[in-house]
Automatic annotation (TrEMBL):
Family of this protein: Belongs to the peptidase S9A family.
Record-linked Pfam families: Peptidase_S9 (PF00326), Peptidase_S9_N (PF02897)
Organism: freshwater metagenome
Occurrences of domain Peptidase S9A N-terminal (ranges): 4-402
Ranges where the Peptidase S9 prolyl oligopeptidase catalytic domain occurs: 463-676
Protein name: Unannotated protein
Keyword Hydrolase found: yes
Keywords: Hydrolase, Protease, Serine protease
Length: 691
């Protein structure tokens, strides 16, 4: 089997650490015909490698499909006199969005009207992603947007829900950063990008006018800041947020006076973060002011800058969000690597939403109504399907509204536990495990470790029937919570970013070793998986511990860190300096070069690797994984599977249809089973029969 060989063109990066040759730099030029030819050759090579394993992929795909109820419907959600549902139909890739006035005894709508059928809108496109889905204040109009190539550039349309037809209004090249309707439904606010793909400008569109007549409401010139917009749940205020990685600023527009100039709540200053919501007679402010793990404050409507304490700071209890309702707040927080919810009433009393002890997710579900005495929330774990519950805040009675159907799954066969590993510097690192009940602790099982570990993103356990396909075949599946995420509070994040970034990789490698030490996995059958910044984690973990990993899955991996972060003309770079540092000067130049996966490749054996890319990806450019794979193939001293698949018509999220995503998961599972020798005839990770 002949693997592609990328041409080499001499190029030198001039860096503070010295001149650095990069013979595959040319791949960043997608207009070079050799670039597309190389990506196509890698795709053909990947297809050729998988060809003998088509039966396994088909089996895994059929198994995933059989364990999901393909025709299904969400629990109806009530808003302004209407019940809203989303449903799926067997054989169709995308959801269908509906509403009605009445529900039958079975909870289903008796007068259903289709608002938007994504399958109809996706017809003729290889890729389809729904962006905005925003019902107007009078419930007569729907603002919706679509992306048809994965670039995350959306065309925004407005649908008359009485007729089912779109208006003549067309707003092109809008962003994912939110929309907001005025109170009288005559104006729609939206956000556009700059040349670096940064959401930065808010526009006001008056229905019936051409886009060229839209008024610029707000523009953020500072390239560190992203702009977003939303209408608060009370419906009274339109809120513009401008956020960098370390500071933020909010602006207010009365929803009943859409042409009013936005008013700043508190001017930005370094290291001050805050977000504002409206609580009827006052504003609620979530802020890190004198509170590393954030606290909740209030301010009068007439003086939004006059903050008074409401919920005091508790170190280690990271408050991440506050949702406002007429009679209560719902406070979202992370404590000891576990998400939690608490309800606070106007009298200051608290009611915790208690779920259980096993590692699980817990989050507010769709609760659009401002005046309500109940709260809907969802929970799931690695052995419990997503479950929607509603709790009456007056009586305390909790009702299960729906548990996601899982046909052909015996959930009693699985168990999940929380464990802790000790990292290189002595830090205790939490991780969650799912295995077959009664699996022996004899250090023989193949194991997949999944992690992210950046941007203070916390990764709660989630349910996946695709994952269970691996567990059924003897895998131990591990979700690690390394520093750089937010699971253990803000300091956990700070200890895994900038000049502490290497802690993320040390933590993941420590988790893998701990899983082996506990007898849950074989030392020579470990795989690591991550995407985007998690793909950086994959590459850095492999480089830091080359003998630890037998296989790796790196999805749209951010692996050419120094080159990308040295170029401020690229999308996102300037914004990202507050996360990673600016390698154009020291000390970041040397530190980032010390862990950048692409810059630390050398002549040695490499594990089996399956990498993915998206040609239209605006977040991690396709050339990063392409260069990484090309250089590994040039340098490595073994011939383990080394595969790159580029989605030529998609972006950061990969395939858009649900069946395509299920097949992608089946393909990744097949790769892992083969690479770790967990199927009959599978090639060992460092075998000699496959390139």
């Amino acid at each position: 089997m002949s693997a592609p060989s990328a041409k080499r063109v001499a190029h030198v990066h001039h860096r503070p650490t010295g001149d650095t040759p990069d013979d595959f730099h040319w791949l960043a030029n997608r207009d070079d015909p050799d670039t597309i030819a190389y990506l196509n050759a890698e795709n053909a090579h990947t297809d050729q490698w998988f060809a003998p394993h088509t039966g396994l992929v088909d089996t895994l795909f059929a198994e995933i499909k059989s364990r999901i109820q393909e025709t299904d419907q969400s629990v109806p959600t009530f808003k302004d006199g209407w019940w809203y549902v989303t449903r799926t139909e067997e054989g169709r890739e995308y959801p269908i969005h509906c509403r009605g006035r009445e529900r039958g005894p079975d909870g289903r709508l008796t007068d259903e009207t289709v608002l938007l059928d994504e399958n109809t809108e996706a017809a003729g496109y290889e890729y389809f992603s729904l962006g905005a889905f925003d019902i107007s204040s009078d419930a007569r109009l729907l603002a919706w947007s679509l992306d048809t190539d994965g670039s995350e550039h959306f065309d925004l349309r407005i649908r008359d829900l009485d007729t089912g037809h779109d208006l003549a209004d067309r707003l092109e090249d809008t962003s994912w950063a939110g929309t907001a309707w005025s109170a009288d439904s005559t104006h729609l606010f939206y956000v556009t990008y700059d040349e670096q793909e940064r959401p930065c400008t808010v526009w006001r569109h008056r229905l019936g006018d051409p886009q060229s007549a839209d008024a610029q409401v707000f523009h953020e010139p500072d390239e560190r800041f992203y702009v977003g917009i939303d209408l608060c749940r009370s419906g009274k205020w339109i809120i513009i947020d401008s956020d960098s990685k370390t500071s933020s600023e909010s602006w207010l527009i009365p929803a009943d006076d859409p042409t009013a100039a936005p008013v700043c709540v508190v001017p930005r200053r370094d290291d001050l973060e805050y977000h504002v919501d409206h609580w009827g007679d006052r504003f609620v402010v979530l802020t890190n002011l004198d509170a590393v793990d954030f606290r909740v404050m209030t301010a009068p409507e007439s003086e939004p800058a006059r903050w008074e304490p409401l919920v005091e700071h508790e170190p280690g209890r990271r408050v991440t969000r506050v949702d406002c309702f007429a009679s209560h707040l719902v406070i979202h927080e992370w404590h000891r690597a576990q998400p939690r919810l608490r309800v606070m009433r106007r009298d200051g009393s608290f009611t915790p939403i208690v779920i259980g002890d096993e590692p699980h997710d817990c989050d507010l579900d769709s609760n659009p109504e401002w005046n309500t005495t109940s709260v809907r929330f969802s929970t799931e774990s690695m052995v419990t399907p997503a479950t929607l519950l509603e709790q009456d805040l007056t009586t305390g009675v909790r009702t299960v509204l729906k548990t996601a159907p899982t046909p052909n799954v015996d959930l009693s066969r699985y168990e999940t536990v929380r464990a802790w590993a000790t990292s290189a510097d002595g830090t205790a690192v939490p991780y969650d495990v799912v295995r077959l009940k009664g699996a022996p602790n004899d250090a023989s099982a193949p194991c997949l470790v999944y992690a992210y570990g950046s941007y203070e993103a916390s990764m709660p356990p989630w349910f996946s029937v695709a994952r269970l396909g691996l567990v059924d075949r003897g895998f131990t599946w591990v979700l690690a919570h390394p520093r750089g995420g937010g699971e253990m509070g803000r300091q956990w994040y700070l200890d895994g970013k900038l000049l502490n970034k290497a802690n993320t990789f040390a933590d993941v490698n420590a988790v893998a070793r701990d899983v082996v030490a506990k007898g849950w996995a074989a030392a020579d059958r470990l795989a690591v998986r991550g995407g985007s910044a998690g793909g950086l984690m994959v590459g850095a973990c492999i480089n830091a511990a080359p003998d630890l990993w037998a296989a790796a899955v790196a999805e749209v991996p951010f692996v050419d860190v120094v080159s990308t972060m040295s170029d401020p003309t690229l999308p996102l770079t300037v914004t990202e300096w507050e996360e990673w540092g600016d390698p154009r000067s020291e000390p970041f130049a040397s530190y980032m070069a010390s862990y950048s996966p692409y810059d630390n490749l050398d002549a040695r054996p490499y594990p089996a690797i399956f990498a993915t890319a998206g040609l239209n990806d605006p977040r991690v450019a396709y050339h990063e994984p392409a260069k990484w794979i090309a250089r590994i193939r040039q340098l490595r001293t073994n011939d383990a599977p080394l595969l790159l698949r580029t989605e030529m018509g998609a972006g950061h999220g990969g395939p858009s249809g649900r069946y395509d995503r299920w097949r992608e998961e089946a393909t990744i599972s097949a790769f892992l089973l083969i690479a770790l020798g967990a199927v009959t005839g599978g090639a060992p990770a460092n075998g000699s029969t496959n390139q």
